[in-house]
Design a protein that fits this description.
The complex is a heterodimer. Chain A folds into three domains: about 150 residues, Aldehyde oxidase/xanthine dehydrogenase, molybdopterin binding domain (Aldehyde Oxidoreductase, domain 4, 2-Layer Sandwich), CATH 3.30.365; about 180 residues, Aldehyde Oxidoreductase, domain 3 (Alpha-Beta Complex); about 325 residues, Aldehyde oxidase/xanthine dehydrogenase, molybdopterin binding domain (Aldehyde Oxidoreductase, domain 4, 2-Layer Sandwich), CATH 3.30.365. The two termini of chain A are about 55 Å apart. By secondary structure, chain A is an alpha+beta fold. Chain A contains 18 helices and 30 strands. In chain A, helix 15 packs across helix 17. By secondary structure, chain B is an alpha+beta fold. Chain B is about 35% helix and about 15% strand. Chain B contains six helices and five strands; from the N terminus they run E-E-H-E-E-E-H-H-H-H-H. Chain B has a five-stranded mixed sheet, sandwiched between helices. In chain B, strand 1 and strand 2 form a beta hairpin. In chain B, helix 3 packs across helix 6. Classes of the chains: A alpha+beta, B alpha+beta. Chains A and B meet through helix 1 and helix 15 of A and helix 2, helix 3, helix 4, helix 5 and helix 6 of B.
Chain lengths: ~800, ~150
Amino acid sequence: MTDTFLFEAEAKDEGLKTVGTSATRIDGLDKISGAAQFVDDIDFGPGLLHAAIVESPYAYARILSIDTSAAEAASGVVRVATGKDFPYKFGMYMEDRYIFAQDHVRFVGEQVAGVVARTHREAVQAAKLIAVEYEVLKPLLDPKEAVAEGADLIHPDLDGYVHVPWFFPKAGTNIAHWRKIRKGDTEKAFAEADYVLEDTYRVPRYAHCAIEPHVTVSKLDYADRLTVWTASQSPHTQRHLFAEALAPLGFAHKDVRVITPYVGGGFGGKAGVSMEIIGAAMATLVKGRPVKLRFTREQEFINTYQRQGVVAELKVGVKSDGEITAVEHKLYWDAGAYVEYGANVVNAAGLSASGPYRVPNITNDSICIYTNLPPGGPYRGFGYSEFHFGLESHMDRIAEAIGMDAVEFRRKNAIVEGDELAYGAHMNPSGMIEAIDKTAAAIDWGVEETSANPNTVIGKGIALFWKAPAMPPNSSSASFLKFNEDGSINITVSGMELGQGYLTVMAQIAGEVLSVPVNKIRVETPDTDRNPYEWQTVASHVTWSSGLAVEKAAIEARAKIFDVIHQVYGYEDDSLYLEDEKVKCKTDPTFAKPLREFVINGIQTEDGTWRGGPIVASGKFMPEFTNANSDPETGQCGHPNVHYTVGATGVVLEIDKQTGRVWVRKAALAVDAGRAINPDLVNGQITGGLVQGLATVLYEDMRFDDGGKMLNPTFTDYKIPTAFDIPDEVIPIIVEVPQPDGPFGARGVGEHTMIGAAPVIANAVYNALGVRITSMPITQEKIAMAVIQKSKT
Amino acid sequence: MELNLNINGEHWALDVAPADVLLDVLRDKIGVKSPKIGCERGDCGSCTVLMDGRSVRSCLILAVEADGHDITTVEGISSDGLSELQNLFLVNNSFQCGFCAPGIVLSATELLEHNPNPTRHDVQEAIVGNLCRCTGYEPIIKAVLAAGKGGSE
């Protein structure tokens, strides 16, 4: 048994009616009918004001002066704001950001000033009238240069920054955090290994590209109540950061309200706080008026979070029988100008960079480096997508070098329940071997396929993945549940429906416990005034964590229902059960009391009085077995992660030898969901995540010029997949080895489905052409050039 | 400038500026919110509407260009109950975040209007201008193909 065991979930294989079914999404009708309301769709009446920001054209510069006079005099302008109005720091895990730039700008696109005007057009026009004088400084755009001896300090005051206790900034350098893992004796293991492979892998930056841009409407009313409507993954965390950052203005948490309707995709980009605080702060300057700030697609690329780039230096040692004995993984992260969120991506990667393998000797260095590029942050996969590219490429190369089948090599070394992790805790139950076998079978691994077309070749690849939720050890979830007169249910939670199907899954969990069908349960999107606490909808943790909170609320409601029945009819609670929206009794088969008859108004007794009343319940969950207090030099003794979700990805692809064009003919992905609460929704995550991941390896790529300016901030130039850019066939495979502490055994799968996509393509390209490409993306051009290069040697 | 539009079967006479695009007029002056603002340059397709039955990017159409034309949005399709296609999108759990859904419903509706029995390639081509970041398109294509076969799977 793992040390993550909490309590026996109610999972029983027999008799589940709702959990495990592919129920229709409860938000489906809203979305296909046009009823779904996103922040930008909410009407605020004629008093609505519009904000626009002034952005730095330089990656690194000192601000000498800001002249706002022309903007203030411009048509329709209500207010102009600069850094002087808000000299307050904020940040998620490290307070290194300002609402508007103070004395320096540190990336192209950083907000220097803002305008609030009556119309959007007037705000944009007036912003162009703000004159900013800069002293341009030389930017640091490469992480290795930024850590070189004598490099300029992007944050000279780093030493004084407030941060979480598990970060270790290095004062006097550009290193904001350095996660170290030292397990066993890596040096000795390499000396004793039969084969050692060492290489460097490069992964560029990527953009989330949720189709809905960031948008926020903020209003400080005349009673000093700040309400913020946001397209966000993190309403409570946003409330907390708004209240903290604006504390000098006198806000208490109760006076800050964040309302989050449907969100048009997140992928990590709408976690934490990015542009939302700009709008919230500007609203405090125009009391009584709602202020809308909606980012353009270009701003979406350059001034929200980006996925961080990484240079990964990897060394792996094995015995001749294939046993992995040592991994040394040095990750140099291009974390950008502010790392308040991104440093935790670095941390998460550092903890797990030895991958889903049993490795006795590990040296991981995951180094968070300030650069003058846009702030890095969370993106689906949270550091794991990035380091798996090198790691899983490397495993294939080692298998080949020692003459072992790539699947067999992975089967031999795959981490299994009880194995010791890099930081000393132990691996949770996992279906990794089953995932490997099913994925290999789905792509006919071992069966060589030849193309009928003489110009093309067929390649196959496989890659494993794992990921744990990365979150503070005490991240929590809560839920409220209430019955209605007709026996239907309303549930409030503060996880976000980002598209993954969260609301439906919560309804299925509650519906299972209470025998109520999903279509009679409404789960509400968050309003921090009314919905109970949720840390954030990130880390693929809400099915598990919020699911447990909802399950507990449902169990509490059931206990209250049984108590009323007991009071009135005398049946013992343990003889009662729920079925088909009725209370039934094991000892009296004739008894069946419909919920709708009493869950609000109670039950009348023989003397004419009533018992019961509205059935309401709450539930909460916080892991009580985690701690992040590990040794800074070795990473040992903590228990920073709750559990890992594992799986495997396999592809069959066809490549044009001359042009390098790749067609993914078949893609299989197996993920261990513990229990698929809704298999259709798990399949949705598999297909969607896989396609998103394939794009990062095949063509997506953020390009910057040598001044740090992004060159392709549009969908014209930063291509994301269209309906033509998908595999011919996707084979989703659900593995279910229950998570002992999960709701009905479930664990998260949302991010994981993207992680294996990059290395699996690298491996299949090698398999097809014999060329190994170690930098992403593996574009058509890169493949064609590598083939030419190979033919010359 | 005065503008006359038929929006979802209802006549509107409006005063618009020459530079106003159809998308902003629909959203801000008429309160039709299903066409979304995603990129404002015709790349993403979330603002798709039907003009005289053909799909257009309402972010790229000046409002005055739509003068006298019939505009259909998802609100118009949904007003008398869901279409067969919408039902199939629903039961197939075709969408995730749903931000692209109004545009895709319209593009697919247009396709089926002109090609009642589309191939997979036809469906891909019909929605190629509508970006979806969540689904990988498969469950969307599946539903449209099913609609093309009269609702059978």
